[in-house]
Every structure is written in C-alpha cells, then in structure tokens.
Amino acid sequence: EVQLVQSGAEVKKPGESLKISCKVSGYSFTNYWIGWVRQMPGKGLEWMGTIYPGDSDIRYSPSFQGQVTFSADKSITTAYLQWSSLKASDTAMYYCARQYSSGLDSWGQGTLVTVSS
Amino acid sequence: QSVLTQPPSASGTPGQRVTISCSGGSSNIGSNSVSWYQQFPGTAPKLLIYTNNQRPSGVPDRFSGSKSGTSASLAISGLRSEDEADYYCAAWDVSLNGCVFGGGTKLTVL
Question: Consecutive 10-residue runs of chain A (117 residues): their mean pLDDT?
C-alpha cells in the first residue's frame, strides 16, 4: 500500500527556520516525483513544486522559488520541505503527494504550519 | 487569482447530474492533461480523475472527466449527499513550467 506520512503540526515564530518531512512507503521512492502543495486557511490548493528523489532534480513554482527548499533522503525514503526564515504568511497546511501519470495519486495527511509571534 | 477558472460553487439534488467546469488556456489545458481532486473539510485531497478522463481504482464510475480545447469538465451523476465537497482541477502549464490548480468549486447537495 502506497503511504505518505507527514510530520506533525508546527508552531513557529517569524524568522525561525523549519523543516517538515514526508515519509514514503509502499513503492519505489526513487522512481516517482513528489510534489508539495500549499493550502492557506480557507483557500484553494497551490502547487509549490516537485522533486525527483532518484537524482534530486527539482522544479519550483515561480511563486515559491527562493522561498522554500526541497530535499530528499533516499536512505530513509523521506522528502523534506524547509524554510530558512518563516513569515506569518507561511501559515498554511502543506501536503506532499506522489506524482503518477498526470495526477497526484497519493497524498500525505498534511502538516499544519502556524507562524505567529 | 488562479490560472485555471472554476465556478466557486455548484449544487444539485440527490440523483441529479452535476457538471463542474474548468477553463484554462493554450499553455495548460490546451496542451496537457487535466486531473481532478475531491477534498472534504479537514482532509487531504483525493485524486478523482487523471489524464482527462481516467479514474483511479476505487473511484466510482459516477465520476467522469472530459476535455475539449482549453476547457475541461467533471461530471457527477447520481448525485449523493456524500459527494458534498470541494473539487479542484489541475494541469501542467508549459509557460510557467509547473502545475496549476483551479480555484476550487464547492459542491452542495441540496
């Protein structure tokens, strides 16, 4: 069974750094792209970008380029999304999802990030 | 403002057929496949349709997708109360070199 299990909710202050994770199981981690999607409170889905764990090829959405960093650790089949300096506007639910064919076919449960002073 | 345009809301009565539209352009829907997602409050989205009209295993055949030119549609037949959710379309955009989502449609079953 394909599973993506994300790390737990985080509460941070503006300016702090953060790294959230997406632990994958049930398929070959290195053979599929993993996308990251943001959902701000009460809003729609926004594609942040995608990473191919096989060779760490990365595509960032122009809206998120320079704002976040994707990475992956093949040894523990885990993908990461990180911020070096959080802003209040980063408050949102973040999802990882496996890219299959032309869709995102399996999703993590989401990680809620709250940034507040 | 989203690159793909969906109506913010749609509604129907049980048993009816409802259609949700998704309008884009030549750089996204016009040149790439469309996928559709269903999201209930407080839960992760779920893939309903990929490659314009393909259903993943486990998705009822009441859900169907179509694409024509720069627009796509999701149809739900035999509407049920449990279909009440938010629905999103998505497609790859060659100009942005990334995936774009529609703004979402909130479906209400009356």
Answer: 97 98 97 97 96 95 96 97 98 96 92 97
